[in-house]
Amino acid sequence: MQRALKTIRAYSANAPESIRPGDNLELDLGLDSMRRVELLVAVEQEIGGNVPESQLSSIYTVRELVDAVRESAASGTKAGAGDRPTFAGWSAVLREDPNDPAVTQITKPRPITDTAIFLFARLGKLVWRTFSRIQVEGIANIPTKGPYLLCSNHQSYLDPPLLLAVLPGRTIRQLFAVGTSEVFGTGLMMRIAQLFRVVVVDPDSNLIPAMRAGAYGLRQGMGLVLYPEGERSIDGPPKTFKKGAAILSIHLQVPIVPIAIDGFFEAWPRGKSFQKFTPLKIRIGKPMIPPQESQASEDAYGKFTAELKERVMEMWRGLEDTNERAAKANS
């Protein structure tokens, strides 16, 4: 138990002096979904066992984590012996191509489908501008060719389709996204995901496949749409950015294009139905070049994530200031 606690302390963002068995991995120790995966494998390597990654979604405390690894070790399952590889850092994980057809098919040419999506997106733009307006700045900052990441704050369900609505056709044809099974996991939404090149995963219980899917598309020269917050804002302003975009950018050596949006929350707030057509603003910043992969570390991931959030926040505050000036002018 002491060896496991030492490992857990090393991985804990809050680094408490004494870790208790009942401590919550997220609330008390500050471990996000990525860090929990890394911790699980580190504990496995320390005391044995190979707990399925999907089981992590039902593990909340230090005691539950250690017990799960111990039970796995007692059953004779060794770390690295299952479907999930022994964790050797994100560089090793991201080098492996996925074997899921739903992932590998995103690179197939689809001229007819892509043309239809482009026309659908333009129709959406026309409809919105019929009732309100969309203001876009910085389209020229998006590279003409991939790979790259488009990283925006996330305000509503309208964010992805209306972002597509303002992008050039050449950009739309090379984009894909990784979406959560909570939204795209069943029925019509799954079909929409296939149509729009959205790879559907559960990021909490299958984080490594989600990251690997993103890396695969980037290696094929595509552009990845990724929302670093991982969820829609509860009240409009950007919230905590997770480090997934930074990890992919650093290890794949691809730029991140920061994007700030505003007005989407007022149109369709989280937890409510569509409210109204509101003025929308999208500001696209200049690409951010990641540090060299040789510098990859927790500190590097954290620093680059902080830089990304600051860039998005700076642009978003600029959009907010514009809204306030417009309101005063109209009053």
Walk me through what this model shows.
By secondary structure, the protein is of the alpha/beta class. It folds into 2 domains: 2-87, Non-ribosomal Peptide Synthetase Peptidyl Carrier Protein, Chain A, CATH 1.10.1200; 101-330, Glycerol-3-phosphate (1)-acyltransferase (3-Layer(aba) Sandwich). 46% of the residues lie in helices and 11% in strands. It has a 7-stranded mixed sheet with strand order 1-7-6-2-5-3-4. The longest helix is centred in the last third of the chain and has 33 residues, at 298-330. The protein starts with a helix and ends with a helix. The relative contact order is 0.12.
Structure keywords:
331 residues, alpha/beta, Glycerol-3-phosphate (1)-acyltransferase, 2 domains, seven-stranded mixed beta sheet, 7 strands, 46% helix, 11% strand, globular
Quick overview of this protein structure:
Helix content is about 45%, strand content about 10%.
Order of helices and strands: HHHHHHEEHHEHHEHEHEHEH
Strand order, largest beta sheet: 1-7-6-2-5-3-4
Largest sheet: 7 strands, mixed
Predict the CATH topology of the largest domain. Glycerol-3-phosphate (1)-acyltransferase
Q: How many discrete structural domains?
A: 2
Number of helices: 14
Annotation, overall tally of beta strands? 7
Q: Which CATH class of the largest domain applies here?
A: Alpha Beta
Say which CATH homologous superfamily of the largest domain is assigned: Glycerol-3-phosphate (1)-acyltransferase
Amount of helix:
40-55%
- What is the average of the pLDDT values? 88
